[in-house]
Amino acid sequence: MGQSTPTGGTWNTGPAPGTTPLSSGGDGTGGAVGTFFAAVLLVVTGCLAIFQGIAAIAEDDVYARLGNYVFEFDLTTWGWIHLIVGLIVVLTGVGLFLGSNVARGAGIALAGLSIIVNFLWLPYQPWWSIIIIAIDVFIIWSLCSSWSQKPA
């Protein structure tokens, strides 16, 4: 698919109109945007989990439990769980900003762990937990769909 130049060479005019794939993997920018957005969401949700953990550690009366629940822990224990998971999630988000594939795999795993932790946190903050679970599902989707194989 070339066009003759005045000097006898050919110009590469690219693919014919209508044959360009719509996937984001063509030039690599779509995958980078998805990864960048997932990294931003990881850092934000990690910081919010840190603040949530600090609030639960500092004052046990900040959160009120709604009814009985099978997975009951002391609020201080939940505070430490949220604080530790939040710190690791923030570090993973920073690793994604640096372009680490290990951080991508860890981000998927940690978003899954965050879904589980927030499911168990439902009796204390039901709406907040549901929102964070939805964000974590979006993080997993974004990291999985923007992961492309690059030749070594």
Question: What's the gist of this structure?
Answer:
By secondary structure, the chain is mainly alpha-helical. Helices cover 61% and strands 4% of the residues.
Helical content band: 55-70%
Shape: elongated
Number of DSSP helical runs: 4
Instruction: Report the oligomer.
Output: single chain
- Total E-strand runs: 2
Return Rg in Å: 22 Å
Mean pLDDT: 79
Output the helix-strand order: EEHHHH
**Spans of 5+ residues with little confidence (pLDDT < 50)?**
20-26
Strand order within the widest beta sheet: 1-2
Helical/strand content category:
mainly alpha
Strand content: under 5%
Most strands sheet? 2 strands, antiparallel
Q: End-to-end distance, in Å? A: 29 Å
What does this structure look like?
It is a single chain. With 152 residues, the chain is mainly alpha-helical. 61% of the residues lie in helices and 4% in strands. The protein is built from 4 helices and 2 strands; from the N terminus they run ββαααα. A two-stranded antiparallel sheet has the order 1-2. A hairpin with a 5-residue loop joins strand 1 and strand 2. Helix 3 packs antiparallel against helix 4. The two termini are 29 Å apart. About 5% of the residues have low confidence.
